[in-house]
Amino acid sequence: MRIDVSRSRREFLRFVAGSPALLSAQQSSDVITDPKAAINVFDFEPAARKIVPPAHWGYMATGVDDDATLRANREGFSRLHLRPRRLIDISRVDMRTEIFGTVWDSPIGLSPIGNMKAFHPEGEGPVSRAARAKNTLQLLSTATKRKKKEKN
User: Fold this and answer.
1) Residues of the domain holding 31
2) Residue 17 has pLDDT above 80, yes or no
3) Are 144 and 124 in contact (CB under 8 A)?
4) Which of 27, 16, 25 is nearest to 58 (CA)?
């Protein structure tokens, strides 16, 4: 007897998506509504969870190998601390950084997500345009498909 893994996965995700525990977790009142209200990058997580379909959120927010890499990343970030400096001029902050000979306006980059069409009908296109507009590094997934040019 052969098991259809894709079908089983879809059925499981449909079951999880309908879970009352998941739905109540999504309805938090501490969700930011404006990016300027974020204190740190983790403030965006509840906002994203609120608008991303549950099955897609589960795919994006989890990792492989029992989430070992995800835990290691969180633990690594928890060891980084900002050193507050008071009474200094912050009117001209320069966050530029150089990566492999290319200067970027910010040290923050957009990480790859396989199958961006699960999150937006145009896939990587809108994210790429936003990254270009803000001169931000974007890494693409190996699952990214190049849009074919139309012939006139």
Assistant:
1) 9-63
2) no
3) yes
4) 16
